[in-house]
Specification:
Largest sheet: 5 strands, antiparallel
Mean pLDDT: 94
CATH class of the largest domain: Alpha Beta
Number of domains: 3
Helix content: 25-40%
Strand content: 25-35%
Radius of gyration: 20 Å
CATH architecture of the largest domain: 2-Layer Sandwich
CATH topology of the largest domain: Uridine Diphospho-n-acetylenolpyruvylglucosamine Reductase, domain 3
Order of helices and strands: HEEHEEEEEHEHEEEEEEHEHEHEEEHE
Number of strands: 20
Structural class: alpha+beta
Length: 315
């Protein structure tokens, strides 16, 4: 495969250290690493992999992914950008490329007094990655403001409506099908600029107090649990005051199951939130998987609820 890749991808790097490109700070050396900066180059790279039947994965901002120590597929990295030229603002709408940082989109919308995404301030990653995982916080999700998403489906570029994206809590059709997000259109409601700015600033302060600069973690590790998916037997074991927006926080379930203080190698559960796993510096994929399975068993044994990871394992 090496000769084929070197023939068709002139910018490819061999044995690239992926650790600095992820917020969790773990992984290893990517055997075949291809960085791309533009949407055109991104689409062309995917076309080549499909034409020559080359196995590959796509990396966006690196904020919600976990790499193994050995990764032998081609990794196409659609490099994050803060270039405002990749964003078009018209009235209450914003059109933007997928590799623009999510935080840049939020900052622009807040500055314009457009409400709907201010709770996502300071969340790392790109708009494309945020759309795939339907990123959200404090009752808001990126899908709340999406008008349409443009994707490359392997044959051509097509535009999908919000409904066609099948958005759900931290989920979308893009996690299930080979549809690669390249740009998106957002539609907002005009709000009180000062109120929106104040809310964004308050959330930014709270987030930075919790996630200290340099902290190696992917954010919330497990998804919160939809109440409709919990059995009556399990509901009897739960403090009903902990239910928020018809969801039960994974942090509460983990806390009650004795998550804090647990660790595996250099990976440990934080002391400030039971749904945050931290890498001391030399953590591994195997350690993460081992601790995650241990935590899931603890919650299932106590509550009869099986947690689902919000992070994505890059295999």
């Amino acid at each position: 495969m090496k000769k084929t890749l070197e023939k068709y991808f002139s910018g490819m790097k061999l044995d690239y250290n992926i650790v600095p490109q992820t917020t969790f700070g773990l992984g290893g050396y990517i055997r075949y690493y291809l960085p791309v900066k533009t949407t055109e180059d991104f689409v062309n790279a995917i076309k080549k992999t499909q034409k020559h039947k080359i196995p590959f994965r796509v990396l966006a901002g690196g904020s919600n992914v976990i790499f193994p120590e050995n990764f032998d597929k081609l990794l196409i990295h659609f490099l994050p950008s803060n270039d405002e030229l990749k964003t078009i603002i018209e009235n209450n709408s914003i059109l933007t490329e997928a590799n623009v940082s999510l935080n840049k989109l939020v900052e622009i919308s807040v500055a314009k007094g457009l409400e709907g995404l201010e709770s996502l301030i300071d969340i790392p990653g790109t708009i494309g990655g945020g759309i795939v995982g339907n990123a959200g916080a404090y009752g808001q999700s990126i899908s709340d403001c999406i008008d349409w998403v443009e994707v490359f489906d392997g044959e051509g570029i097509k535009k999908m409506s919000n409904e066609e994206c099948l958005f759900d809590y931290r989920d979308s059709i893009f996690k299930k099908k080979n549809l690669f997000v390249i740009r998106a259109g957002f539609k907002f409601e005009k709000g009180d600029k000062e109120i929106i700015k104040k809310r964004a600033e308050d959330i930014k302060i709270a987030r930075r107090l919790k996630y200290k600069k340099g902290l190696r973690c992917p954010g919330s590790f497990f998804k919160n649990v939809l109440i409709d998916n919990i059995s009556q037997e399990s509901l009897k074991l739960i403090d009903k005051d902990k239910i928020i927006n018809n969801r039960l926080p994974a942090g509460y379930l983990l806390e009650e199951s004795g998550a804090k203080g647990r660790s595996c190698g250099d990976i440990f559960v934080s002391d400030f939130h039971s749904n945050v796993l931290i890498n001391k510096g030399q953590g591994t994929y195997t350690q993460v998987k081992t601790l995650a399975e241990e935590l899931k068993r603890a919650v299932e044994n106590k509550f009869g609820i099986l947690l689902e990871e919000e992070v994505r394992y890059m295999l």
